[in-house]
Amino acid sequence: MKLRAEQGKLKIEHSIIDGLRPVLERLLRETAEIRAVIPGVIRPVRDARGPVVIRVTVPTTNGWKAIALSAGARQELFISTGLGKVELEALIGRVVRGL
User: Fold this and answer.
1) 98 and 26 in contact (C-beta within 8 Å)?
2) Alpha-carbon distances, residue 74 vs 1, 10, 20, 51 (angstroms)
């Protein structure tokens, strides 16, 4: 069953790592240039402690792939947007610091 949140922009088909969902919801609320965020695969990692960290990694056909780290896990995020990497990183940083 496919679920969507934040005006249909956050696609939820999988679990989302602890602490990440409020960050994504706030990012979507505050940024009209982001068309959608699709959380992907979750994998355990040793160095993902503390607050949520999101790193924008590589461009995709319609936006960017990012990696979110939190609660001993990493999760892929696919962000559909026309924003450049620098602008997207700045927006994500502002939202993460604001929570």
Assistant:
1) yes
2) 23, 18, 10, 12
